[in-house]
Amino acid sequence: MPTSWSTPIDSEICAVVPAGTHFLWHLLNAVVLLILMRATIASFPSGRAKAAS
Fold it and tell me: How many CA atoms does the CB half-sphere of 38 hold within 13 Å?
């Protein structure tokens, strides 16, 4: 991520959120992973696949 645009934004947010913003990165990653996992699960056919014998 380029610091040229993120640094001014981060400075303004850190003035409001003294604990910092790193936790937002983890929260965003968790949301993206949840969306991807739900989409992957939804793409499987319903029911269990029968094992090849």
Answer: 6
